[in-house]
Amino acid sequence: MFPTAEVGQDFLEFFIHFDESSERDASSYEASMQEELDVFLQGYVWQKEPLVLGVSTTLPRALHGKMLVGDNVEDEWVATAALNTLTKKHSNITVQVWDADGEFLLIEAAEALPAWLNPDNSANRVFLRRGHLHIVHQNPTERHMELHTALSFVTDPETPSTRANKVMDAIVLDRLGHATSYSMQPDINHHHVQCMLPPAAALVFQALPHSIAYAVEAFYYRDPTEATQVCRHMQRFPVPSTSTGMATAMVPLTRCMYAQVKQQQFAPPKPFQPTTPRPDADANVVAAAELGMKLCCGLELLCHSRVQDWRGTVWRDAIDALLQDPARKFVPPSDLRPSDDDSWMYVTPEGLEAMLDAADSKLQHQSANDDEDGGESGGQALQTMASLFDKFVHTKSDYEGVATETLPTEVSFNMHALMEILKSGNVGDNLHESP
């Protein structure tokens, strides 16, 4: 019933390096570049922490940032796409970015890596500059390239170009383009829901919108025993004795947040029981009460911890300061609307078949280059793979294993074609059918 009570620490870390020829200090760019990022990312809802620039304390000519991404890895790609837009506008910067897994840009382009490049020698070799991926190929046998040396190779016009090969560059830029054209779109990133909340909780979510992500995380990763004890009293967010005392608010979530809250079974603690609608009440009212109860419990749990925001402020302190200000009151929304449709969460066999048909049709159009090279098209490769699985399952075996002489000795398989299906941007939208 409960997930592991261990919050993920996945992160994205980056540096914006300024060329040595730059006339201004990095600090003089901080505010203007942050504004550019904010404009690019306007309206985007982060799963946990936003993309924030700061002056590097370790490098003299750089801006730096590190953000926790929570359970939505897509935030990494959105943030990287935003940083890459800066490199298109500012020709004097080079961006370096990595995550908890290391050089995730190389992982994305793994099928096109040069033979010499591997995890042991990739440090300080992967950059974004002027809108493209750069790989420092000089001194390939050197296990650890010094950062200042690598940057000189990237920025010096007299040295051989460090632009990545066309396939690697295209793969990475395609992934960044997907983040921009699909993941950032409001109807994909946002999921607005009506919630019935105690007025104090509604005020916190309205005045401190970033607290929503932390409340979701506190609820999702709750310890069952602690949750029972804390939510039995609801000290900071007292629940009115009747539903008429509750506030109705529109709460902006990501799809990931919504799924985390929606799909968990959680019986209303005692303080919420008088305001909980009967099961046969209007479905929208039941959903608003249930979601509000879960989010409010998450907020109460957050206030019983010392969790900090990205600025180092303890959420409990910030929330207490807000609640103690008598001038701050929840303002009911003037445009209260129904909750967003959540049919994207539900998969039907018909939706899956339609998605596979659409993906196969797309792959057939992309197969021309494969055919010219003598290889299989994406659709043919998938059919081959399915056939091989079927043969393998039905092949005679003994104590020495499967008799492989009946199987083909060589298999040509287009990994990019398979990944097109797995990463298809509209998978969620094609899979669902309203329940």
Automatic annotation (TrEMBL):
UniProt cross-references to Pfam families, sorted A to Z: SGT1 (PF07093)
User: Which InterPro entries did the record assign?
Assistant: Ecd (IPR010770)
What cellular component GO annotations does this protein have? nucleus
Q: Which domain of life is it from?
A: Eukaryota
Alphabetical list of PANTHER family matching this protein: PROTEIN ECDYSONELESS HOMOLOG, SGT1 PROTEIN HSGT1 SUPPRESSOR OF GCR2
From the Swiss-Prot or TrEMBL record, give the protein name: Uncharacterized protein
